Every structure is written in C-alpha cells, then in structure tokens.
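re: that complex we talked abt at group meeting.

here r the seqs, copy pasted straight from the sheet so there may be weird spacing, ignore it
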Amino acid sequence: MGIETRAITPFLTLTMALPLLGALLLAMIPADRARAHRAVSLVASLGAFLVSLSIWVNFNPALAGFQLVEDHAWLAFGARYTVGVDGISLLLVMLTTLLTPLTILSTFGAIQKRTREFHIAFLVLETSMLGTLLAMDMLLFFIFWEIMLVPMYLIIGIWGGERRIYAAIKFFLYTTVGSVLMFAGIIYLYIQGGSTSFAYLDALKTGLDLQQQMWLFAAFGLAFAIKVPLFPFHTWLPDAHVEAPTAGSVILAGVLLKMGTYGFLRFAIPLFPNAAGVFGLPIMLLAVVGIVYGSFVAWAQDDVKKLVAYSSVAHLGFVMLGMFALTAEAVQGSILQMVNHGVSTGGLFLLVGVLYERRHTRLIAAYGGIAKPMKVFAFFMVVITLSSIGLPGTNGFVGEFLILAGTFREALSSPGGINTSLLVMGIVASTGVVLGAIYMLTMVRKVLFGPITHEENRNLPDVTFREGFILGILVVLVFWIGVFPNVFLSRTSASVGALIDTCKGRMVEHRLAALPALRSDGEVYR
Amino acid sequence: MPTPSIETLLTVVVLAPLVGAAFNGLLSGMLKRSTVTLVGVGAPVVAFGAALWAVLLWLPLRESLPDASVTAVLLQWISSGPVNVDLALYLDPLSAVVILIVTGIGSLIHLYSVGYMHDDPSYARYFSHLNMFTFAMLLLVLGRSLLVLFVGWEGVGLCSYLLIGFWFTDMDKAIAGKKAFIVNRIGDFGFLLALFFLMFHLKGSLDVPTLRAAVADPTTAFNTDNAMVTLVTLLLFVGATGKSAQIPLYVWLPDAMAGPTPVSALIHAATMVTAGVYMIARLNFLYVLAPWSMAVVASVGAATALFAASIGLVQNDIKKVLAYSTVSQLGYMVLGVGVGAFGAGVFHLMTHAFFKACLFLGAGSVIHAMHGEQDIQKMGGLAGKMPFTRWTFLVATMAIAGVPLLSGFFSKDEILFKALTYHHASGVVPEWLSVVWFAMALGAALMTALYMFRLYFLTFSGEQRDHHAHPHESPATMTIPLIVLAAGAAVVGYVGLPDPSLNLWEHFLEPVFGGSEEAIHATGSHGLELALMGVSSLVALTGIGLAWWMYRGAGREVPGRLATSFAGMHKVLWNKYWVDEAYDLLIVRPLKAIAHFTWKWIDAGLVDGVLVNGPARLISAVGGAGRRLANGDVQAYAAALAVGLAVIVFLFM
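got the structure back, here u go
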C-alpha cells in the first residue's frame, strides 16, 4: 500500500469543502428563512455528491494504494493535510455523499425549529464524515473523528425526542471514552515512529512487538468497537436512535456506525496485524453473539425504531465477522455490506420517519393494516425489508453470502486444517438469515397487514412525491447492487487484496499461537 | 426474419415474465384492466412460445452437444475471491421438460385467473406477483449455477409469501404467508450451509456441469470423503423438505391455501413445491454417492406420502384436502428420487402438475360457484350444474387415484416398482427398507383413491345439501384451462410406458440421469413390474369402491360410525396430529420467551443497567460535579471537549 496517483484537480478536498462552505453560507442567512436554509443545505450536499462522482469516475480499480492524493504541510510537528481514496474507502465515500442530500431532503417536513442550526450541523457532519474516511494523516483523522461527534450530539440533543438529553449524553460520553484512548494510541505511535510524522503510511512501517501491538490494538479497537457497535458496547445505540430525529438516525445508522468498522479495516487490522490475530477470534465471537443477540432482542421490541436499531447490531455483526475472517470475499463482502446496511437500514429509518410524521408514534401496535391506505409506502417497506433480510437479487444477499462464504473458507480450507471454532461461528452466524426473516417479517406483518385496528390509520396519506423520490433512489440501489455487484466489488478488490497480502500471514500466525485450545486437530470430517 | 439463437430464446423465456411483473407492478395505478390482462397473460405465453421454440431448435442438435446442453450467459454476477458466479441459463433435457411444464401450465393458470380474479380490486398486483413467480421459477429451473438456482429458490418463496398473503387485510392470511416464508428460510439455512461445505470442504464448484465433472473424477474429495458428501446432500435435502413440504417442514403448505386458488394450483401444487424434487434430480450424480442420504430422502418421502394422505381422509375443506394430497404426492416424488428413480420422480412431477393443477382449478371453479364456500359437507349435487368442472375434475381424480391407463397410474407405478426393487450398489442400505417404503407407498395409494373419491362424491354427486348458493358453470377463461389440463392428465402418462423400448421419457432424460443408473442395481424384472401394476390397480379400485360405498352407496352411515367407534384416531387425524400445536409449544413459544428475556433482563437489565449506567450512576452519586456535568448544556460540552483536546495536544508537543 502506498500512494498510487496524486490529484491534478483536488476532487477530494472539493467534496469535503462544499458542505462546509454551505454551512458557512447558512451562518450568514437570518434565522427565520427556513426555505433558504433548506435550499442552501440541499444544494451544498448535492454539489458534494456531484463532485464525488468525479472521484468515482477517476478512480482506477486496478490500483491497490491511495489515489487522488493531496498532501500539504499543515500544523507543526509533522502533522500534514493528506487525503486520499482507495478501494476500502471509495464505496463509503460515495454512500456518504449520496445519503446526505437524500437525508437533508427528508427533513424538509420534519424539521421546523432552528432550521439554520440544524442544517449547519448536518453539513458539518458530512464534511467530518468525509474527512474521517479520506484522511491519510492520523492526526487529521482523529480531528475529523472527534468533530463528527459534535453535530450528531447536537442533532440528537436539540431536535430529538423526549429523552433526547439522556440519549445525547450517553452517546457523547460513550464514544468519547473510546476516542480518548485512541488518541493516546495515536500519540504513542507518533513517538514510537520518531516523532516526525503522523502519516498513516509511515505508521504502517512502525516496528512494534506483540505486546505493544496488543495495547495499541485495544486502544484503537475500543473506540471502533463502541462506534460499530460491537456487542456488548451497543446499548447507547437504541437510545440514540429512538431519540434522534429521523435524519439523525439515517445518518447514524447509514454512515456513522461504519466509521467503526472502517476504523478496524483501515487502522486496527493493518497497523497491528499480529494483535488483530490474537484478538481476532474473540472479536468474531462477539460479532456472532451480536448477530443472534441483536436478532432476538429486535424480535421482542414493540417500538419500530428500537427494532431497527437492534437489527443494526445484528447486521454489523456480519460486517465484523467478515473483516476478521480476512479472506478476499469476506472483506469485500464486509465493505459491500457496510454500504448495504446504509441503504437498507437508512431506508428503514426513513420509512419509520414517514409513519412518525403522520401518526407521531413509533409503537408497532399503533399501526396495522396500513398497506391499504398507503400502497406505495407498503411497496417500499417490503422491498427494503427484503434487502435487509438478504433476499437474493437484492444487495443484502451478496454481502451476507460473501461474508459467510469467506468465514467458511477460512474455517474449512486453511492450510492448518479445519478450524472448529470458526466453523461453529460460521454456522451460528448463518442462523442470522432465519432470525432476520422472523423479526423483520413479524414487524412488517404487524405494521402493514391485517385489518385496520385504529380508526386514525384508515385515511393515512400515502408517501408524497418527495418521500417517494428518496425511497425510490434507495430501491434502485437495492437492485443495482443486488444484480450488478461486480460494479462495486471490482473497485474494492485490488485494495483488499493488498491488505490481505500484507496482514494475513502475521494475523494468522498469532491466531494459531494465541488460541491453540480452540483449534481442532483437523480430523473432524476425515 | 433470421431464426433467433437458442441462447436468445432462453433469455426471452426468463425475461418476459420479469418485464410483465415490472410493468403491471410499477404502473398498476394507471393501467386499464384489459392492458393488465394482455401483459399479465401475455408474458407467460411469450415465455412458453420462446421455450417451445428453443426446445424445438435444440432437439435435433442435442446429440452433438456436450451433456446435450446449451448455456446462455447473461452476466458475470459475483466475482470475489474464489466465488465466481455467472448468471447463466442452462438448457438440458431436464430443464427443457420443466420449463415447458412451468410456462405451459403457468399460461393456462394465468388465463384462468382472468376469470377467477375478475372482480378483485388488486387485479394488477395479482398479475404482477404471478408473473414475478414465473420469472423466479424459470430462473430456478434454468440456473446453471446452484447459486442462481438458489436465487430462484428464494424468489419463488418470496412470491409465495406475497400471494398467500395476497388478501392481506385478513390477519390469518398474512400470518400464513409469513409462516411459509420463515419455514422455507429454515430449509434455506440448510441449503446455504450445504453450498459452503460443497465449495470449501469438497472443493466443488457451484456450477452444475463443472461439479458433475469433478464428481466423475475418482481423485476428488467427492469420492474420498463420503461422510462430507453425505452431510452436504442431507443439508441440501433440508432445503428440499422446506420447499417441497416434506416432514418435518411441511406445515406451511396446508396454511398456504389462504392464497387465491389459482395460486394454489400454480405455486402450491404444480411448480414451486416440486423444486426440491427438481434440485435432487439435478444433483442426481451427487446423491448416488451417498446411499445413506438417499435412504433418508426415500424414508422421509414415503413417510410424508402416508402421513399426509391419512390427514386427507377426514378433512372437509376442499382446498385442505387437496393441500394434504399435494404433500402426499410430493412424498411420492421424493421417494422416487430417493430410490434413484430420478426419471420416475420427475415423471410424477409432470403428471402431478397436470392433474393437481386441474383439481385445484376445478376446486376454484366450485368455490367460485358456491360464493366462497369451501366445506364439502355443504356441497353435493354440483355435477349437473357444472358439467365442465365436473367431468374435468373426475378425470383428474381418476388420474391421481391411479385408475389404470391414466397418467398418474403410470408415474406412480413406476415409483412403487423402483422403490420395491431398489438396491444401492454400495450395499450398505439394508434391503428390507425397500419393502417398507413400498408398503407405505401402497398404503398411501389406497388412501389417495379413498379421500379423492370421497371429495368427488361429496362435492358433485347426490343432492345439494346447502341451498344458500346458486351454483353455475364458470366462464370460458376458466373452463378452457380445465379441459386442457384434464386432457393432459389423461394422456401425458403415455410418454413413460413401462417398457424399455417404449419409454420415451427415460430415453430422453438419459443424458441427465444415465450416469447415475450404474450406482443403482435395479433387481426387478419386467414381469414383476407388470404384476405390481395389477396390484396397484386393485388397490386403486378398492379405494374407489370403498369411497363409493361409504359416500354414495349403502354404507353411508359408515363414516359416522367409524368416527365414533374410533373416536381417538379420528380426533388425531382431524387435528392433523397436533403438529402445529406441538411446534408452537416446543419451538415458537420458547424462542419468544428467550427473546423477551434477553431484552428485559440481559440487555436492559445487565448490559445497560448494570455495566453501562451503573458506573455512570456511581460517579454522579459520588460527586456533585456529575450533576453539573450532565446538565445538557451543549456549549459547555463542546467547550470542554475542545479544551480537553487542546490540553492533550499541547502536552504531547
């Protein structure tokens, strides 16, 4: 991994800067001009999306390292402004730039108070998310990572529901605890590398023994695990989702959580591969527990938003499983599944928002039979549910299948023979396809089907053109990724291949050494 | 116009129904009913035409083609690591037969639906779903890769879910749809695991012809790791028990009758439910390597045939009787492929598609005429009022009962014969099992004749017992399909006459199943086969005679007397062995309780309550500072964070 191409036109910086410029412009508009706030916000985020299309076009799928790199001296002590994109971040960047304008569009009805501040927060959030994904300098990464917290904290705390303060503080404290340790880790790496550079590519070359790697992995890993969230660090998520306004939930689930999984893939695994080997099986175990546990808890919910929140715990369990299986198909499947989760869970939160705007309740029992008055809504809900439960032909299937395939390959075809613990994890994770169908279809049945049980639901207005437009784009993505996954997979394969080439050996070496008791003698099926 | 290539035609076969589904589905609000009809019925008809054309072009060429097959690659679907799957269509003798059944009978059922669903407000949605089903089923049949087959496999499950719950405002129907999907997913879980073991333990390809070549190579794991081959084939069979409604996953199919009756005919009788049988036939070369798996398959099939037939004896809902009958007939097909009679299993699949589709559509015609009444105890005397329905129903009933010289007679006898004479070349499976299977299947045949003619007599003969309805014959869009299907039910058996020189069917499918026959030592002689035909003819006629005696003749008080003197047995059958109740008590409720416990006690109680909020509460209790910190003042938080960050940064400088 290195720098493959340098940018002639600074597309990355432009993409990141446009939302920030929009935010600055908003600050100059009087507070009561809600329509102007919405217009500026939408135009700025759409602009970012359009510029990001040129990232997509100029991206060369054959190159493994960073592309379109921009590198400028910035602060003192070796910190630089370095940004670049590779196969690991490209899809997430595109997801961010697409999902943000769609989400902004969804707030046009729902957000009526303090629109200026809301849209400023939202655009700053977009810039910081993009910065987190594109930064090639560890300090720059950390600054974006921390900035990201503030607007989301404000979005939950100001525009949220009744218990918004509790949820916002929990979100903030929980994620800050993780970040503090990560920051210490970054500083330690900086010193270890000779106190000259925060560059990611230099950090990769830092010589670390296993002991050091394990401490650093723990420091980075905790921050990321909280963000994912990996079981049992997940309890901030349902609270945050339930209290956040729809747009907050969409971005939280759609993009923000992926910063955790992205962090593992970009930093924790390649910087500390031996430690990743040591911690790999326990993390995969937590991921698999999360799949089953999240599914069961989701099934028991009577609040739609909480149900979707717990389903995220299950879905991100799949992503974590795939990353630590560290085979080409598993990691590519994980990256794709990050995007898929953004589309399907983002879509589910948008759907819940549509209902909430009409009935002001999130309780499943308050609905029932609404497929009759809301036919188009029902269509969207069914399609996005199918994507969420991984029906073949939709995006969710490709991701889940590749992750499970990679896990099974790692368990069954490794040079060392059958890895029984991995095999058991693969089998248990596969039950997720049944459990997902149970809780999602139960929810769909209770909300959409049956007789109408509440009079006020009888004449619910169907989705508006604006709502239908947003959901329609997500549905196009569901099938586009589901039927033509190679368009996306091909752009991740070179970078993922390079990652595996450099890390796999060191990771597996310590996986074997650290957990001998969990390994079988390879004689199980012979 | 130049003749299109076979590849192009295959693409049309698959895409025509998809286009129809998208058209009626997306534009449903703005279409005239006649446009919906034209596109909705036109799509499967175009698919049938293209399928027929493709098969006619392929027939003269097939001798010269590898495996007598043609492949059309539509798209490179997934390429990642070792997973490389093309979306490719594969025409060979097996898929040729099945696509003709699916599109041919499918077209008739679409046509019938025009009359049956005429007054439904969701007419366009209905045709959209039915077209989408046809698309998924064709993908399942034509998929060259097992993963493409799986796409169709889950796709047909989705359409089944949507169509069972078509009248979704009825909670029971919505629940039945959901149940079908979830039970099928349990089967699919097995299927998926099988694919993973196949790919990564046996190092096999998902591409069926490649897999077949690997199996033929004695050095591959397929021929050295028999335990794993057994595991894989059993896991695949778990998938088949879901889709083809076998014990223990058959429970969704009787409930699936909640869907519109043409759906029951197409999906839950003629096509989708046979997918498990098709899959095993497709992978015949793999199954013959695993004699124990085949024994399990055959045993489950025989048990299902007998078990479901016994329930069918006492049911009064016309569609429920046919549903249990379908489960039972699927048992025959599964028994067939389980004893290595792959050709016979698929033969019964075809004959069943004709007579069972005819029976369901006939039942639909009856229900239509009776204004929704489905209880056969309230019917009777419909023979004179609905002549087309009556005669076609009678022919199909005779075919399923095994009346000599009709289609069901030939296909069922073939399975019975093969079951009795089955002997796996490995010799590991005890031979007395064959006798058990044969006896079970023969018992089921007797019951089939009995419950089917009970159904026929109660519905059509005698006097009308309930006078609320004024039955009338159905319109031509409904009777024409009935006539075509009844004609088929009468004659399609002649392609598989029980004589080696006359059996066109076995000869045609030879390129697909020929290789597997070496593994099966059929010990029976031609004389034995003819003798068995005599036996089963006798059994069928006995069943019919019994039904006549008990429901038409002098023994009319017998059913009531039997029900009282064998009250316990009757109760067990009437309540379908309480299997649904047992599943609910032993599986569904405990899982729900676990879900609730996990949420309330582990998640809210332990993880969040103690581990997360515990320390937080502790801190805020110890220091009053905690209260000041947690006052929700956003600016204060932001400022604190900024100051903290700055301090850390400067410390390290």
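couple things i noticed - The longest strand of chain A covers residues 67-73. Residues 11-518 of chain A form one domain.
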